[in-house]
């Protein structure tokens, strides 16, 4: 009897110890605002939108200590619309934002497998854009941050530890076609952080080939390239931002909002027509964040798009915003942005989640994190 009680006590202690070494966190963002869009083919639009500053989401993140500085990790994250409660993707994919599992070592780095962000997009959001790809000033309005340039499925990602301020990240997305190179994606970044300086160089390579099937032949469609330099420097009184991107090749410029162009001439509306995606462009950004009274910050940026094709569909965006921390987890925001389209370009002012419909937009809202 005593042996049985001792065994139960030992097993209970071991179970408690194992449980203590594992950790699962439920986290998320609830973001909603009022958006007023002007100057688009849909006319003046005022609406309630979800994910203006940051996409509304709920996720599960877990770690298990395996000993020796090694941990097992996972993340499952889905996006939803605060305004109507639906999933924020048309495919009804449950974990459309992130779904990966992997191992993390303090000395060797982190290796993960699944649906993940590209290093190119991480550089844009985490380093180069003062609006962090949100509000009406989002760099996604003019930079090619859409589709698999943002995240991709069937990906393997390796992140190095930090060595004297330097770190690296490599992303490989399997095309999963009969020809191994068809549809694949390769992205990589090198980061350097030293005090107030944060700099990152990122590259994205997208193979557009399609493999042969029982009814179709293989098609070679070339490679799309994106090269990005992102820098920010904290002067204490203000944080300055700079970003430059070069895109070349088919599908290298996957804009979320470059759809159709239309308007009114002589009081008569003309039919909207599709605007073909460019295959050669340059994007530049200058921005700033200025802290205000400890709990808020003013944000501003200017973006210039230089289309290198013959049609020369250039665009400029000016944006200003203000974010105020109401508490540690709740932030109020307001912002305005205006795009000046040239030569038939049809870029629109959106937020973090929606692409917008007009060439200017004002938004005000609240974001709560948990």
TrEMBL record:
Its main location: membrane. One of its GO terms (cellular component) is pore complex. One of its GO terms (biological process) is monoatomic ion transmembrane transport. InterPro entries: Gram-neg_bact_OMP, Gram_neg_porin_domain, Porin_dom_sf, Porin_Gram-ve, Porin_Neis. The keyword Nuclease does not apply. Keywords: Cell outer membrane, Ion transport, Membrane, Porin, Signal, Transmembrane, Transmembrane beta strand, Transport. One of its GO terms (molecular function) is porin activity. The keyword tRNA-binding does not apply. Residues 1-20 form the signal peptide. Residues 8-343 form the Porin domain. It is found in: Cell outer membrane. It comes from the Bacteria. Pfam families: Porin_4. It is a multi-pass membrane protein. Homotrimer. This is Porin. The lineage of its organism: Bacteria, Pseudomonadati, Pseudomonadota, Betaproteobacteria, Burkholderiales.
């Amino acid at each position: 009897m005593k042996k049985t009680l001792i065994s139960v006590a030992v097993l209970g202690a071991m179970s408690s110890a194992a449980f203590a070494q594992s950790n699962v966190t439920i986290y998320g963002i609830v973001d909603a605002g009022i958006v007023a869009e002007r100057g688009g083919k849909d006319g003046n639009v005022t609406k309630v939108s979800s994910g203006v500053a940051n996409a509304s989401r709920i996720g599960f993140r877990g770690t298990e200590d395996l000993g020796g500085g090694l941990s097992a990790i996972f993340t499952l994250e889905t996006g939803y619309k605060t305004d109507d409660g639906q999933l924020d993707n048309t495919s009804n994919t449950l974990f459309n934002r992130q779904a990966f599992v992997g191992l993390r070592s303090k000395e060797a780095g982190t290796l993960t497998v699944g649906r993940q962000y590209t290093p190119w997009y991480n550089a844009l959001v985490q380093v180069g854009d003062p609006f962090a790809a949100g509000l009406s000033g989002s760099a996604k309005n003019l930079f090619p941050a859409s589709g698999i340039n943002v995240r991709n499925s069937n990906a393997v990602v390796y992140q190095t530890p930090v060595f004297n301020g330097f770190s690296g990240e490599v992303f490989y997305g399997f095309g999963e076609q009969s020809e191994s190179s068809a549809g694949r994606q390769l992205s990589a970044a090198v980061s350097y952080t030293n005090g107030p300086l944060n700099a990152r160089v990122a590259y994205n390579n997208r193979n557009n080939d399609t493999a042969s099937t029982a009814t179709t032949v293989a098609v070679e469609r070339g490679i799309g390239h994106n090269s990005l330099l992102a820098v920010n420097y904290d002067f204490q009184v203000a944080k300055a931002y700079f970003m430059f991107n070069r895109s070349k090749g088919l599908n290298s410029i996957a804009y979320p909002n470059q759809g159709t162009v239309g308007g009114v001439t002589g009081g008569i509306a003309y039919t909207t027509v599709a605007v073909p995606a460019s295959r050669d462009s340059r994007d530049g950004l200058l921005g700033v964040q200025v802290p205000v009274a400890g709990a808020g910050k003013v944000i501003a940026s200017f973006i210039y798009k230089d289309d290198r094709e013959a049609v020369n569909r250039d665009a400029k965006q000016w944006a200003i915003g203000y974010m105020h921390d109401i508490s540690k987890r709740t932030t109020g925001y307001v912002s305005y942005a205006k795009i000046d389209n040239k030569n038939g370009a049809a870029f629109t002012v959106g937020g973090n989640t929606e692409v917008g419909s007009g060439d200017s937009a004002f938004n005000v809202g609240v974001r709560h994190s948990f």
